Amino acid sequence: MQLGEPRAGQLLISRDPGDGSYFDRSVVLLLDHDDEGSIGVCLHQPVTRRLPETLEQLRPLLTPPADPFEGGPVNEDAVVGLAQLRSPGSRPPGWSPLFDDIGTVELGNRAEDIDGHFSHLRLFVGLSGWGPGQLVSELLRGSWFRTRATPEEIFATPDRLWQRVLRRCGGEWGLWSTWTPEPGLN
Predict the structure, then answer these.
(1) Which of 5, 4, 17 is nearest to 165 (CA)?
(2) What is the pLDDT of residues 138-179, one digit of tens each?
(3) Fewest 10 Å CB contacts: which of 59, 71, 131, 145?
């Protein structure tokens, strides 16, 4: 699958399951990639943590599970809102498109200003980040699989997301989805 340069809307799927690293069996949605580096959010790690009071008002609007997700180990004070438009082609206040009808939403808006515009909303605390050239280097080393994101995967329940994305990709990647931490079963 030829995807060219990394870009917003692509998924990074970790390739070294069981290594115990932060990104073990991770699925990361790229939000931005340029000469200064890359930024994304992990899609599979809900956390039960209280949101800052100004954002707690948004909890009733969140796609289940209605908890924030751990976006990554970088800038852990940052909170990113990721949403899917209810009406494709609309442009609600504070909306920045990433691809198709998926984008980020400005979290300074009141809940009333956001309610009704989005069919899905998730909040991510922290980011996954790479310095200049770092992500491309990791891709060349084979640390990540990369594919286009689908709305269903972005807002799906996080259980077994790593396996589901690899299975969708099929081929050799699909075989990785059967990996188990029990060596005798691999």
Answers:
(1) 17
(2) 999 989 999 999 999 999 888 889 888 888 887 776 666 666
(3) 131
CA distance 119 to 36: 32
DSSP labels for 73-133? SEEEEEEEEEEEESSTT---TTEEEEETTEEEE-TTS-HHHHTTTEEEEEEEEEEEEE-TT
Tell me the C-alpha distance between 12 and 147, whole Å: 7
* Confidence at residue 166, expressed as pLDDT on a 0 to 100 scale: 86
User: Please, what is the average pLDDT of the chain?
Assistant: 87
- pTM > 0.70: yes or no: yes
User: What domains are there in the chain, each with its CATH number?
Assistant: 10-177 (3.40.1740.10)
